[in-house]
């Protein structure tokens, strides 16, 4: 979408289907160039001045149609489409897709195996909490995980509500083998901020590349 015009994705925005398809085609080309098999299909915002409840039905219909179109196109490239709930309490009051429950319902309605849930634990904690149960419940749908501490959206070891060592071990116990994206704003220098990961590896008896010392 047009970020300067206040757009934040187009997949659920009525009347912007052509632009969504154009943007998706460009995204596929970028993804192929860098070897990335997953594309975030951003829902977009409730139109300015519109009542969310009044436009919800039309936006859901648009979202469903666009997701099916995207899934069919991505299947030809052996790619996965991701939908991410973004909280409307802090980050974006107008974003259409806000909770994992809403996202799961959309994925079930669309019914395409190559569409998955991009679960950002920052947004999930703000909207619903109950992270352990939500991870367990929606685990079969999850295609990507993102993390940030709540409420500051900084490094996982910064002061906040979430116990990330526990969450990482829970993901391991569930059998998660995908990436965990660091969707946070470093409090200072990026490399210095990654010290939390080195500390976590050491606490698990791992080298600085995630490899076991015992295995070495």
Automatic annotation (TrEMBL):
Isomerase listed as a keyword: yes
UniProt keywords, alphabetically: Isomerase
A GO biological-process term: glyoxylate metabolic process
One Pfam family, short name: AP_endonuc_2
Chain ranges of the Xylose isomerase-like TIM barrel domain: 9-199
Keyword Repeat included in the entry's annotation: no
InterPro entries for this protein: Sugar_Epim/Isomerase (IPR050417), Xyl_isomerase-like_sf (IPR036237), Xyl_isomerase-like_TIM-brl (IPR013022)
SUPFAM superfamilies assigned to the protein according to its UniProt record, in alphabetical order: Xylose isomerase-like
A Gene Ontology molecular function term of the record: hydroxypyruvate isomerase activity
Gene3D superfamilies for the chain: Divalent-metal-dependent TIM barrel enzymes
Protein name, UniProt field: HYI isomerase
Annotated gene: Hyi
């Amino acid at each position: 979408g047009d970020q300067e015009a206040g757009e934040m994705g187009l997949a659920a925005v009525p009347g912007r289907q052509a632009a969504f398809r154009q943007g998706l085609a460009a995204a596929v080309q970028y993804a192929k160039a860098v070897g990335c098999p997953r594309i975030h299909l951003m829902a977009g915002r409730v139109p300015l001045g519109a009542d969310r409840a009044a436009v919800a039905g039309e936006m859901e219909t648009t979202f469903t149609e666009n997701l099916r179109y995207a899934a069919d196109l991505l299947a030809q490239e052996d790619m996965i489409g991701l939908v991410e709930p973004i909280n409307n309490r802090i980050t974006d009051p107008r974003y259409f897709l806000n909770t994992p429950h809403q996202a799961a319902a959309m994925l079930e309605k669309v019914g395409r195996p190559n569409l998955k849930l991009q679960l950002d634990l920052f947004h999930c904690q703000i909207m619903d909490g109950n992270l352990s149960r939500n991870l367990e419940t929606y685990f079969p749908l999850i295609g990507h995980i993102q993390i940030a501490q709540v409420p500051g959206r900084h490094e996982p070891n910064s002061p906040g509500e979430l116990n990330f060592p526990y969450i990482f071990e829970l993901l391991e116990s569930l059998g998660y083998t995908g990436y965990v994206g660091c969707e946070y704003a470093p409090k200072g220098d990026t490399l210095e901020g990654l010290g939390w990961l080195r500390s976590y590896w050491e606490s698990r008896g791992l080298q600085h590349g995630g490899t076991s010392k015992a295995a070495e």
